[in-house]
Amino acid sequence: MTQHHRKTVFDADRFVRLAAATAIVFASGSGFAYAQTVVKWMHVETVPAYIQVWEEIATAYEADHPDVDVQLQFLENEAFKAKLPTLLQSDAAPDFFYSWGGGVLRQQSQTGALMDLTEAMNADDGAWAKAYKPAALAGLTYDGKVYAVPYRMGTISFFYNKELFQKAGVKAEDITTWNDFLQAVKTLKDAGITPIAGGGGDKWPLHFYWSYLVMRNAGQEVFDKAKNNEGEGFLDPAIVKAGEQLAELGKLEPFQGGYLGATWPQTLGVFGDGKAAILLGFEHTEANQRNNAGDGKGLAPENIGRFPFPVVEGGAGLVTDTLGGLNGWAVTKNASPAAVEFLRFLTSPEQERKMAAAGMIIPAAVGAEDGLKNDLMRQAAEQLAASTWHQNFFDQDLGPSVGRVVNDVSVEILAGQMSSEEGAQMIQDARELE
Prior knowledge:
With 434 residues, the protein is of the alpha/beta class.
């Protein structure tokens, strides 16, 4: 059997140079050569333990498919977003890549850069499609066509440092309304504790606040109308009110010094180093704060609690309405059949169960969530299971042009540099220009 050597690439330019369409490999002692198909896979992951799991999955697949060579490429989040559009229009496009779904995926499908997976998914009485949770598959389907293979589901929630809460006399279970949350922020400040780790440098981490406030005030019907440019759009009074509440939070100066320049990894580090009591973040925050903490250890798992984004009194949204990811693997138009087959293997319940057990994901594959071992991840999975409305990230769902404005506006309102009405108008203008 041919011995493979893992090619894990962390730089896009090297990836382009390495990604030749095929490689000729000589079978040991066979006296003949065969063409080996290179499968190019691109993602934003940077956690070494998670990358190792993928490398093991790829190596196991290659052992059974000696004619396939899987090449992994990982980029940091912002670099990924910056380089991907150019790669998709080049001969060096990956076979499949990480997608947040929403308007960005829809736009990519409209450019003709992606492969329509509908026929493959529905073959054999839809055997492949049935391997995933219906909501996950539906969220990656546009105009009746599937453009990405479901990978993971996730939800944004508040994480908190139990020791700091106890020191300040704050109880997480008492935070059920937005006003309760503001009071907790004030109590933490009075105790000399920085209430929230905030990341304004990348902007998108702060759009979670505006998005959730829109969801809690406006509810799904009003948001969907705004998204579809109906009714009063983003100038709806409930959406304007959400911005006013965001400004109210900003006036409390709840974040660490220099938060407007802090990247997401730095923000995770602030929380992991115990320098702020609260973080609004992803379901895998416990692992990510550990990896970004100054000592590489971060907060002990038993010192981290979580609670949902609270309701707004009088708002149309429910506490069980969730904001979060629906991620998949988008396949490029010229991907080989070998790449599609490997992707089917990668997202099978068996492999997703391994990733769940490693604390990487809340799986999209049916039945794979039983692999979850991390208590905080289990809580997130339970929250998703009870979700009354799961909304994809606004900056993804609304498409790249409107999404950028949403991120910008969220930061400006929090920083007191823009009114809620001005922000709503900017988002509405961007929506109407699409």
